[in-house]
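U., I forgot to send this yesterday:
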Amino acid sequence: MGIRHFRKLREQLRDGRTKVLLWTTLAALIFGGIEFGDPLEKVLDQLRNKIRNHQASGQVVLVGIDDPSLRSVARWPWNAGNFAALIEALARQRPRSISILENVPLSGEAEADRALAATMARHGDHITLGNRFKVDKQTDERVLFFTDTAFQPRDRQANISFRYNYAGIAWELPYAVEMEGQSVPGIAAKLARMPGETGTSFPIDYSVDLFSVPVISAKDILAGASPATAIRGRDVIVANTASDASSRLFVPGMGYAPSAYVQIAGVETLRKARPVDLGWIPGFLLSLLLAGFGVFARKPRVAAAIAATGFAILIACPLALETASIRADSVPGLFVLTIISIWLSLQSWKEAQRQKGTVNAISGLPNLSALRQTAGFKPQVLVCARIHNYAQICIALDARLEKSLALQITRRLTLGSPIPKLYHGEEGVFAWFVEPAPEEKLGDHLNALHALFRTPIEVAGDLFDLSVTFGIEASDDRSIANRLGSALVAAEEALAEGRKWKKFDPAKLKEAPWRLSMLSQLDTALESGDLWVAYQPKLELPSRTIVGAEALVRWSHPEKGAVPPVEFIPVAEQSGRIIDLTTFVLERAVRAGAFIGHRHPGFGMSVNLSAKLLGETEIDTMIGRLLDRYAFAPELLTLEVTETAALATGVGALEPLHRLRSMGVRIAIDDYGTGLSTLEYLRRIPATEIKIDRSFVQAVYKNHSDKLMVHSTIQLAHSLGQKVVAEGVEDAQTLEALAFMGCDEAQGYLIGRPVAFRELVRGLRSVGKARAASTFRVRA
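Result:
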């Protein structure tokens, strides 16, 4: 039984909750033991005093030996005769008692000393003379100052000294002190008729409004100018209140004031009741008990409520107790609750982050992290839908509208065939599980879903076309994470192959190491020079001369050879490397254009601009710096943006294009015709050039509808003041047909394949700017 209990205790000690409670307890014990929180405790005391602030009882009257008294009676210090005269004047007004908060030594003036002795003999039963001590700073010993016994026996005198803290504030007064083996009561305890044990003290209640204490000038008392009712039956305290008195110190609630107010506050405290000081242990134990309940509470809300209750008790209870003259420190207890509350908040934050990490912040659907954590679905088929232009569309939408977009996509995916659990990832990825079924049946369902997405989605009055493909992963011997990756690969391949959906081919797993390492190898290629820029010449059809080139990025891998751009550019876009890649191409294209321009003035350069960069506000600044560095005219640089990306981009995200256009840079809509173009889109996009997609160009002299489309596009562009470039020209018939329709420029294999910079320069030198395109192609 003992071993079992020991093991249970050891397990509890290993528990994080038990550890934090134990460490907090130890820290709080040290915190309270060394009174580390005392400054904060005093601040709370003063706040509570302000709340409980009340008028003085009026039973204590301060007779101040103030500046007028010193000017009219005598300079300080007064001799025994001056005190005798003041006591006689006060006695005539029949106070309950008179206390002199100054020790009165023999003055050496016989007549004055006799006068005070005679006065004390007549009225001594109602008079208390003060004595005091001070601590020698060098020896740390007390030096005693008694009023001379010729005036009053020591056993009838009272102590007027008290200790104050590092800030010069007195928070407690002694009941009685030992002086030369004799117990001497404190003046406050004596006036309040509240004796106490020698060497003990009581806390001062500064909630009394000390400004309401009646104050009379000693000058007025001596002159008989004060009403007798102001003093009769009250306790009178006589003290030096002059502005230059050495006994002034900081009094809570008043500021710097005569120390007599400390004694008056002490009298008011004791007359109410004998104060009880509970210290910090009760509050500490209470907070520790509540902290234990909070730490081991199962629900965060319950823990928070317990902590809040603890704070409320430790703040409110001292206030309530002090009305009954009971004082309790709360800072050590608040320290415990604060530490535990911080720990509980951190635990709640961690849990929230864990929950947040499995939920899509936009749609509220479980995300792909939640999918990867799913267990028990291996026998089912995993389907992924990839909205390829999702990111481009979201550039134009705020979070609220993006949520509307995601919900509309969700409704379409679940239409006709409810999905038990749909997962929503970043970049427009949606995934779900279906029961195993013949491939043909599943394919029919995905074809139907694809048909639904042919209808544009309306968000805030704008229509957006969605480019969607589906990937299927049907294996049952791999992890969910691996299957998800395979399904996404299948969806990407479906897009590249022009299909609506595709099932993942397990044979592709052999290429997995290459694909997984492509990103790091792409970074290496940027540094090593394996990435380079090829230039495909552009032909001006009316003059049949080469007037520019399009800069195209190429990757020559040392082992795999030429890597198609269709493989690594999407990776660069998804990973955030597209900015570096585009900067790399732009820098070389501008430098090449500037070099060629010295021999062939007006030679232009075209560079593809990723849709990811349309949201970059600094893209125009970066391009402007490149143009300035190489002294390349802005109008010779053309930035090509795919039509799909441009159409999916909102008005705000088009602003960088407008700024670039205002700089003089030309803007081309690439792959024109593959989206659903409208005049409104053409009006919004600051394009100077339209590049007709190769799928229409290559059949221009074979297909009548394509010919009409190309011809109408040329006419429309010219009417808008835009130039038309046809890409994918591979035969002379197509070139002549385009020239007949008025097309401005053309590029394609007939004119020249993409070549390295040196070959481009060599080809231009050999044929000259005005030579035929076919000759350039042959030479290059």
